[in-house]
Amino acid sequence: MSEITVKRNVAPVAKKALFLLFRIGSERYALRATEVAEVLPRLPLKPIARAPAWVAGVFAYRGTVVPVIDLSALTFGQSAEARTSTRLVLVHYRPDESLPEQRLGLILEQATDTLRCDPQEFQPYGLDNRQAPYLGPVREDAQGLVQWVRVNDLLDEAVRALLFPVPPLDPAQLEARP
């Protein structure tokens, strides 16, 4: 008896990614789950003097002081509503490969759902919004549009210098420099 080989037309399996969904007002946004370190309840914060209004403050987390920004205030100028679904989301922040990764806290409303989809389903939306470079492509589904927020593009250089100051070199490091 001879073997018969049947070839099936099998579509390549798309790589699915997990996203954390949240809202700013009535609009939906997403963070890639690989950028999320931890989701915490909203915690009391110590304000930072003379920081932009959307910098909510800092808190101590496992021996490190972590800066927190209110994404609603950054994006639309209104603080996130204090709801039971408002979360403090710790993200991996690394705007430059030459710098070490930092923790950054984000206050996010209704950060309770996830989405699993192919990242290629997010498409450019045709606007060059230089005031909000962190707002990435959009994806349409039955509930409307959801926009991808790029963590590493959240802070401009001035705010990054305020929240993540570079420690001065100690004298031994200065002597070792060429």
CATH fold-level label: OB fold (Dihydrolipoamide Acetyltransferase, E2P)
The rounded distance between the terminal residues' Cα atoms is 77 Å
**What would CATH call the class?**
Mainly Beta
General shape: globular
CATH superfamily membership: CheA-289, Domain 4
**Assembly type:** single chain
What's the tally of helices? 3
**Radius of gyration (Å):** 21 Å
Percentage of helical residues?
A: 10-25%
Q: Name the CATH architecture.
A: Beta Barrel
- Poorly predicted regions are none
Count of discrete domains: 1
Domain CheW-like: 16-160
Pfam family, one: CheW
Protein name: Chemotaxis protein CheW
InterPro entries: CheW, CheW-like_dom_sf, CheW-lke_dom
Question: What are the SSEs and their pairings?
Answer:
Elements: E1 17-24, E2 27-32, E3 36-41, E4 55-61, E5 64-70, H1 71-76, E6 87-93, E7 102-117, E8 135-141, E9 144-149, H2 157-163, H3 171-176
Parallel strand pairs: 2-9, 5-7
Antiparallel strand pairs: 1-2, 1-7, 3-6, 4-5, 6-7, 8-9
Describe the structure.
By secondary structure, the chain is mainly β. The protein has a single domain, classed as CheA-289, Domain 4 (OB fold (Dihydrolipoamide Acetyltransferase, E2P), Beta Barrel). The protein has helices at 71-76, 157-163, 171-176, and strands spanning 17-24, 27-32, 36-41, 55-61, 64-70, 87-93, 102-117, 135-141, 144-149. It is globular. This is Chemotaxis protein CheW. InterPro entries: CheW, CheW-like_dom_sf, CheW-lke_dom.
